[in-house]
Design goal:
By secondary structure, the protein is of the alpha+beta class. The chain has 1 helix and 3 strands; from the N terminus they run βαββ. Strands 1-3-2 form a 3-stranded antiparallel sheet.
């Protein structure tokens, strides 16, 4: 296996339905512009509220992707 370099960046996904949907939204949106996504790790879950009601679920993820070689 050749040597590789990966970058880890943080994303926050939001959904009105669930934390799982929020995480999925973050990964699927990032995949539209980042190639070779490798791992997405959920590092924090929270939600926004208004008048005692849950408005949105938020999932914070650490996502890694591979740098492309110029060779």
């Amino acid at each position: 296996m050749a040597e590789s370099v990966y970058r880890v960046t943080e994303l926050v996904g939001v959904s009105a339905e669930s934390w799982e949907a929020a995480a999925r939204n973050a990964v699927e949106t990032a995949a539209g512009t980042l190639r070779d996504l490798r791992v997405a790790e959920v590092v924090r879950l929270d939600m926004t509220t208004e008048n005692g009601q849950v408005q949105h679920f938020r999932a914070r993820l650490a996502v890694s992707f591979k740098y492309q070689s110029l060779d």
